[in-house]
Write a structure and sequence with these properties.
182 residues; single chain; Rossmann fold; alpha/beta
Length: 182
């Protein structure tokens, strides 16, 4: 049986307690649980570096579940990666920069929640925040995973989280997982 590692990170705030991202983890676990052994990490609950490295080694798929903060990942996820992605475990030296990842043969997917509406991206008029796509904005995260050898699956995002129909979004996520992962 294949293994999926779900890594959840967030910065809990009074206006954002993390319930949505908890639900997203539950949906992934339920949707994939019959076909995958599911292992999880909540970086805010603490972690053992060696144990996390072993989780990555055993995983066929890694899902990163997090809310966007200032067009980036939560600081707790950055610290997790700084701690866990160690030389000799995740990558090694190479004459050809970026091609020495030790996690080859594994895939990853980003599952993001953000308050920005989808229309804020990919636009060309004066009412659009940026002409860049969401994946362009988070290119650093994709580059980090590619550096260690992980293969990218399509990103999933729930936009405008305070003004959207969550049951519809949850259904979209289930469908995304079934189409992209299984």
């Amino acid at each position: 049986m294949k293994t999926v590692l779900i890594i959840k990170a967030a910065e809990v705030r009074p206006f954002a307690e993390g319930k949505l991202n908890n639900t997203m983890v539950e949906i992934a676990e339920k949707t994939l649980g019959n076909d995958y052994k599911v292992i999880k990490t909540d970086v805010n609950s603490g972690y053992d570096v060696t144990e996390e490295q072993e989780k990555f080694k055993s995983a066929d798929l890694v899902i990163f579940q997090y809310p966007m903060y200032w067009f980036s990942m939560p600081s707790s996820l950055k610290k997790y990666m700084d701690d866990v992605y160690a030389y000799g475990v995740f990558f090694e030296g190479s004459e050809n920069y970026g091609f020495s990842g030790l996690m080859k043969g594994k895939k990853y997917m980003l599952s993001l929640t953000l308050n920005a509406p989808e229309s804020a991206f990919n636009g060309t008029d004066e009412n659009t925040f940026t002409e860049k796509s969401l994946d362009d904005i988070i290119a650093y995260m994709h580059a980090s995973q590619r550096y260690v050898g992980l293969e990218q699956l399509p990103t999933f995002a729930i936009h405008d989280v305070f003004n959207t129909d969550m049951p519809v979004q949850f259904s979209r996520y289930e469908q995304h997982l079934l189409e992209v992962v299984k």
